[in-house]
Fold each of these.
Amino acid sequence: MSDIGAQLDRLRDAGLYRRTRLISGPQGPRVLIDGTPVLLLCSNNYLGFADHPRVREAAADAAMRWGVGAGASRLVSGTMTIHERLEQRLAEFERTESCVLFGSGYLANVGVLSALGAGDQTIFSDALNHASIIDGCRLARAETFVYEHCNLDHLEWALRERGREGDVIVTDSIFSMDGDIAPLAGIVELARRHGARVVVDEAHATGALGPGGRGAIAEAGLDGQVDVVVGTLSKSLGSYGGYVCASREIVELLLNSARALIFSTALPPPAAAGALAALELLIEQPLRPAKLQATAALLRSELAAAGIAAPRGRTQIVPLIVGDADAAMRLSEAALARGVFAQAIRPPTVPAGSSRLRLTVIASHTASELTGAVSALSAAAREVGVTFTAEDPVPAEPVARAA
Ligand SMILES: *Cc1c(COP(=O)(O)O)cnc(C)c1O
């Protein structure tokens, strides 16, 4: 057998084999899988903007006015009026001096970390940061120090041991697979004391937390105190693309040295226009994020009432931790057979032994939909003999790793 076949077999044996699932029709609170409608509990389209009429129309209009592709990278001939308009609006929204779009949130993290970590400094990174942050650290010339998840004492110890001016501390604000929130005020305070810059990835917090959905930074009262805000247009904003909000100087540095920006084509005009329309909707309807949080609270209380243990938290991301990868897969299949689509999340997305169903709500999910989903999940768990643990997720090994 080929080495590739053997590699795939090893993944199958370990319960880590992955495949895609086909959704027909648009994204929404319910979707069609194989022609059958199911409740969607694993989408990041939190505010339902992906198929909102105004967002669709804006994207369609943009395709008619400006075409489908940007034709070149931003620094050659790909910068178009719609990019600049969206960047201005995002900078206002995040209350920063400047903003630059990236092809995706993944590319934004890779670009920022390789550009800010281009020297002989250290990047201090939370153990449960998103894969795009990990890959950014790998591409940076700087060394990476992984601190224990949300552990300010460990971060402070590391900064005292090896911190110096120009270092970078990077964290998700809402952690993507756990739904907990980084101690941003403490991180900003430590950074100030040690002369480090702070990069905060608001991918899951934009549209979900803070006044008007302005994110975890705004909620913590830290506007203007975070050096770099990374965001995505692909989650609450329902479109596709990434962005970085920062000082004019940092944005200039990114335009001049972030290879993920320089060597990749500018965002398609319809994606930018769709995101801009969604941002305008979010600004006009600042209560949508509160509705999302109320929906999340409802799911959490329904789970508790059904005796399903979940780690404590308050965001729209609710992990049901199973442990074993194969058991998580079987649970996901059994739930799907009962009309609930909740994808199993396994290593390397989460640490070994902490495979889970990562439930996410959409603001428009109704109480009866959630009640039904929780009884389907209970029945599925009984059927496959799975129990849940409310233990805090297994912390990834904190290691100092050379770049
Ligand atoms: C999804 C995600 C990204 C990547 O964003 P895309 O726009 O989907 O590439 C980056 N960071 C975090 C924390 C995420 O959850």
Amino acid sequence: MEKEDKKLLLRTIPSLEKLISSDEFKNFKGIYPRRLVLKIARNCIENIRTKILNNSSTVSVDDYSIYSQVKEELQRWDRHGIKRVINATGVPLHTNMGRSPLCERAKKRLESILETYCSLEIDGETGKRGSRSKRVEKLLSEFTGAESAVVVNNDSSAVLLVLENLAKNKEVIISRGELVEIGGGFRIPEVMERSGCHLVEVGTTNKTRLIDYKKAITPNTGMLLKVHTSNFKIIGFTESVSLEELIHMAKSENLPLFYDQGNGLMINLMPYGFEHELNVIESIKAGVDIIAFSGDKLFGGPQGGIILGKKKYIEPLKNDPLMRALRPDKMTLACLEATIEEYLTTENPEETIPILNMLTEKPAKLKKRVEDFIQELINIKNPETEINLTEGFSEIGGGTFPGFSLPTFMAGIKSPEGANILQEKLRRQNPSIYCRISEDQVLIDLRTIKGNDRKDLLNGFKKVFTERQFNSID
Ligand SMILES: *Cc1c(COP(=O)(O)O)cnc(C)c1O
């Protein structure tokens, strides 16, 4: 290219100032960070300049459509944020989508305290300084029958606090079959190490007997620990010691028994086809000294670590310096209070606690919901798309109920562009729709669709069905 031509071409590049003061760019104002918009626009301009200077023949009109390039980049940036999504996977405790949804009471409470201020540490009775956790602790005792309660940020911190406070520099006995990794690299043995206690493993991976614990007890034993093997299942030639047996032995050896129960199940799910397992309330009734679990698994509340048990073990935790580092914020506490109040108030937690509602929905009801949904989908679909009622299973998720899934009914959608592309298109909607794929069908499981989700799910499909062509995936 001649020098003069280059000069002329360079003059065609719009100036940054002109660009960002254009009407189009005003659309981004107040929505996206100004410096981000500037940075992306500057890069686009720089790109054209480089191409011209390098004699590139590929500089095209597309390079000049800076507004749409910036818009696309901003949307990409947006997709990385935490926003509402539609979970059509049917996995109720989806760890990647925030685990348990909150009940109405908790949502309302949260909204009300976020208006301006809240009574986090003011005693409404006296007007004097109060404690942020007194009420939630009282509610927990009321609900579960535990003598005392402490709340921290999650179950992992609960395990850390309990071990550090009650068994530092002492031996803690645990079955080899329970040395679990919970996920995200959280391994029970490593947390125990961090808390300064010494791990004493007993039994083998598949078999541990009461006598194994008994033989491991020394004058330096500080605690017996049982961990719920929430995310895996050992089947076949197995044997483990029940909570009741351990409670009995801990008592006779005068040692505390700590049960990391994890999932926070409060009700009996057996009538709904689940295997029997001791829930939190039953474990406390059976006499466990300390029990800990997550707030956002089957308990159905916010992320949190709830520790319950005997007064003599729980009260010291409250004055542990670690407690200051692990204490939850006002949003967590308010939400947790409201969730417990809901349990204490409702006739039927399976109705009003969303996570329990999803786990216990009757197949016939689910089927009817799916059939109605399919009818609406058929009304808006394009002719090439096939939609059928499909039977299958919903996993529970969140590392609970390994090897168990619930029979379910789904909308199976077969589109000529293929399941992967349809799935991608659904994910690009606002709010994003997440779904499963099986045998080149997109599966929509309504088990996890509640409230406004249904309307927005349908809207998302409407948009996808009316899109003329698919713009390639980045
Ligand atoms: C889920 C779980 C944890 C981790 O809980 P977080 O609240 O995610 O920190 C620890 N122990 C058990 C047994 C669990 O099930």
